[in-house]
Amino acid sequence: MDTFIARYRNVTILVAVLFAQVLGLAVQVKRTSEDQSSRLIRVWAVNTVTPLEKAIVWFQSGASNLWHGYFYLRGVRQQNSDLKAEIERLRLEQVRLSQDAEQARRLQALLGFKEQFISQTIAAQVIGSSGSEQSRSIYLDKGAHDGIKPDLAVITADGVVGKVLKVYGTTSQVLLINDQTSGVGAILDKSRLQGVLRGTPAGEVLLEKVMADEKVQPGEKVLTSGGDQIFPKGMPVGTVTEVSPDKEHIFLNIRVRPAASLSRLEEVLVITQNEAKTPSVTETGPVRAVDVLAQRLPSVPDKPPDDATKQGVAAGARTSPQPSAVPSKPQTAGTGNPMPRENGRLTAGKPPTSAAPTTKPAGSPAVVKPAIAQKPAPPAVKVSQPTTKPATTGPKANPTPPPNPAQPQAEPAPSEDKPQ
Amino acid sequence: MPITYTSGEQVEVYRFSLPATIIIPLAAVFLQAFVPLQLHFFSVFDLPLLVVIFFAVARRSQVAGLLGGAIIGVLQDSLTHRPIGVYGIAKTVVGYGASSLGVRLDVENAGARLLMTLFFYVVHEIVYFLVARGLVGLTLQWSWPRELGSAFANAVLAVFLFALLDRFKQRT
User: Mean pLDDT over residues A259-282, rounded?
Assistant: First the structure.
């Protein structure tokens, strides 16, 4: 036996080393949490390699900052003016979007939806990769000491990157969304079809579990659905590039181009805290210009509850079509308080306050919504500057006198609204 | 120049200093993990594999070759999120094979190195594919054009890399 081993010493050692590794693999594959069996080796390897990576990235970014911040400033003036113009454009867009968001918030409050907010993030720098095309993961320069934990979402400004897989002291490993073991709950932006986003061995991203009889068009945006409890809902994931049925014609193969450039990542954000809360109507931000105008324009006065029940359906149809349950819809606010006119033009007079109901003719119910009526309305002026600009200046700059409670400036209501 | 058959007594056996033995494999693993972030095409190369082949051939010791391959492979595995041992097994086989070849053949010239690296790259990929599919259950796609292209790219790089690493050789 000894002679045999001595004769085939090299082969014996080869078999022993291979056997040990196969055994180790079997143990790791069988265990659900392979961290327990191989954690020590990984920590040693990561702690050996990543300090050098950190040092190089630090030196690289320092040199780059020095060059671009102090020496290579060509075109910076032009870029500055371009950015200022961009800021102006974005400010206008922000006003428009804030109106939409406000409306959405009101509707969400009505329906009891819970909004998710990204309340805390940590910026991290990408310092390395796994070095293998079969393992699409990256290393960040932040770890457990910085508050990173497993299963946190990692994003960039462009979209979703992946999730934190393993956390070490000063570094962490992130599994990219194009790895074949990753899975992200996703939803198509227009069709609202939900599926699971998975990577392929070739590093592509596929949206799975969408039935073959659904219609999905290339170019459609893919967002996170929030169903995986890792990524906040509504974050951009990518764009559909190709749609084809699978072999069994049960599901669609939807190829997605990731929104974030996964092969050129430098800085990322790790979402460390999410908040979910129901938006409150009392937290409403800027008032829409159209709401302010609606408060001032002459409109049909609401009938007293008793009258309304007597008049039946016909009279009810003539009143405001808006559902009265909407708390902040001021469609009937300012009833009998017409928009002051100056030289034939509509001018925004004094914003209606809590005293507004006193200007109403007797018998006209006051339906002023306090949340809206008591708010100052500077943002509304910003929205529609040409028509409501005087409102910013208030009564001081407005030559139009405030409406006289004793003399209503408009007819309280058309004759057809009178009780029959 | 063709690969020449040489007897065991005729081939040169080299050794390496301890710093070179430690730093060169570590540098290969480090570069493999770092450079693809800057140059994406670099991921086609497998620097740790080239280092395994180089050391195995230069030392001409099967035990040293397979152990070197196992250690470098495990180190490479530990940077991935896969179970440790897939690269380890593949590089162990390559280390053993390359050192066995180095014992019998003189593979010091560029042409021999090109062919040898081409061959062992394909062997490495086949072993990796079999282990990953058979033992770990990974879904991998085998593509001969892609593998041969990668093998050729690695072989060309190996010619230059081995010439560079020859400077660290010490005669026994």
Answer: 78
C-alpha pair distances (Å), A63 with each of A69, A70, A123, A124, B115: 10, 11, 20, 18, 41
Please give the backbone phi and psi of residue A72, each rounded to the nearest 5 degrees, phi first. -90, 85
Q: Which residue has the higher pLDDT, A133 or B161?
A: B161
CA distance to partner chain B, nearest, from residue A47 (Å): 10
**Distance between start and end Cα atoms, chain A:** 117
Compute the count of residue pairs across chains A and B with CB atoms less than 8 Å apart: 132
* Better-scored residue on pLDDT, B52 or A317: B52
Judge contact between B53 and B120, C-beta under 8 A.
yes
pLDDT for B94 equals: 95
Nearest C-alpha of chain B: how many angstroms from A126? 9
Q: How far apart are the first and last CA of chain B?
A: 26
CB contact under 8 A, B136 and A25: yes
Dist. CA A16–CA A374, nearest whole Å: 82
Tens-place pLDDT, residues B78-94:
999 888 999 999 999 99
A35 pLDDT band (50/70/90 cuts)?
Answer: low
| Chain B from 127 to 166: CB within 8 A of any A CB | 128, 131-132, 135-141
Contact A45 B75 (CB under 8 A): yes
Question: What tokens does A285 get?
Answer: 């931000």
**Which residues on neighbouring strands pair with residue A129, listed in sequence order?**
A138
pLDDT at site A285: 52
Q: Does pTM surpass 0.90?
A: no
CA atoms within 13 A on the CB side of B55: 31
- Of all residues in chain B, the one with the smallest CA distance to A19 is B89
Answer yes or no: do B36 and A17 touch at CB < 8 A.
Answer: no
Does residue B64 contact residue B55 with C-beta atoms inside 8 Å?
yes
Q: What domains are defined for chain A?
A: 112-277 (2.40.10.340), 286-410 (no CATH)
Give per-residue pLDDT as tens, B97-152. Answer: 999 988 887 778 888 899 999 999 999 999 999 999 888 888 888 889 999 999 99
- Specify whether the CB–CB gap between A208 and A255 falls below 8 A: no
Cβ-based neighbours of A219, under 8 Å, separated by 6 or more? A239, A240
pLDDT digits (tens, 9 = 90+) for A5-34: 777 888 899 999 999 999 988 888 877 555
* Alpha-carbon distances of A111 from A7, A102, B61, rounded to whole Å: 80, 14, 74
d(CA A177, CA A214): 24
Please give, rounded to a whole number of angstroms, the shortest distance from the CA of B1 to a CA of chain A.
30
In this predicted complex, what is the ipTM? 0.86
What six digits make up the tokens of A347? 């001018």
Taking an 8 Å cut-off on Cβ atoms, the answer to whether B80 and A131 are in contact is yes
- The verdict on a CB contact (< 8 Å) between B135 and A25 is yes
Q: Which of A5, A7, A18, A27 to substitute to test the interface with B, most B CBs within 10 Å?
A: A18
